Amino acid sequence: MSVPRFYVAMPLAVGVVTLPEDAAHHAARVLRLLEGDTIVLFNGEGGEYHGCITHINKREVTVQLERFEETDRESPLAITLVQAITSGERMDYAIQKAVELGVSRLVPVTTERTTIKLKAERANKRLEHWQKVVRSACEQCGRNRLPQVAPLTELSDYLSAHDGDTIWMLQPLNARPIRQQPKPAAGLTVVIGPEGGFSEAELRLAQRHNCSAISLGPRILRMETAGPAVLAVLQSLWGDWQ
User: I want to staple 239 with a disulfide (CB 3.0 to 4.6 A). Which of 57, 153, 156, 235 is the partner?
Assistant: First the structure.
């Protein structure tokens, strides 16, 4: 059975620590851990601390951290995933799987065919929610560094601000297979469109910014499938699966 892992937004060092309220609730009320159980803590700055629970009740959990390990599970390929947003669980799934597959940065965007519209307050709340999804995914998959989730922006604004970057846009038709693309020198950006695909204006804008059209084959993938599929291929070709 795997050792439970908890992200905590606080400085860590060998010694006694008290878990923050949310982590304590998860340990005591959700996982129902007991005194003497082994756990792992990380704060997103790299490495992880191993320890055991010395006191636990419904409101407080105290842990004796016994050792630090400089464990690094990051991919050698720095990938930014620019993902057209959608509502509810489909977006959560896409983010969760992207984290598990080693993405370095996530950029949620709106496009001309995006069906969900988020104003400032709602966009901030969704950003907080997506950050929680990232933290939970890191706890599950063993990553000790949190991928950044950028504020929501428009696709056109993102492309204009990153002219000259290596950007690949997934398109099902008339695009070059990923395996025929040259190996990225360092990192790259992959853009996944909305359910209705990119508009003609967005495709023309992408061409002006020298974005490369890539394909995973003749079938059209759902939005929440496309991102994880691309990341899996990239990790297999040039990342930590080769």
Answer: 235
Do residues 90 and 126 share a domain? yes
Count of C-beta atoms within a 10 Å radius of residue 191: 28
The total of structural domains in the chain comes to 2
Structural domain span for residue 136: 78-238
Secondary structure of 23-36 in the HEC alphabet? HHHHHHHHCCCCCC
C-alpha–C-alpha distance, residues 119 and 158, integer Å:
18
Taken as a whole, the chain contains a residue count of 242
Nearest to 46 by CA among 137, 131, 142: 142
What is the band of 185 on the pLDDT scale with cuts at 50, 70, 90? confident
Tell me: do 86 and 43 sit in the same domain.
no
- Alpha-carbon gap, residue 221 to 150, rounded angstroms: 24
pTM over 0.90: yes
| Chain center to CA of 227 | 11
pLDDT of residue 1: 63
Shared domain for 107 and 194, answered yes or no, is yes
CATH number assigned to the domain comprising residue 42: 2.40.240.20
Residue 172 φ then ψ, to 5°: -75, -25
Q: What is the pLDDT of residues 97-119, one digit of tens each?
A: 999 999 999 999 999 998 888 88
Asked if 56 contacts 35 with a C-beta cutoff of 8 angstroms, the reply is yes
Same domain as 115, residue 28 = no
Residues 11 and 99 in one domain: no
Beta-strand relationship, 148-149 and 167-170: unpaired
8 A C-beta contact, residue 192 and residue 170: yes
Average pLDDT, the chain: 93
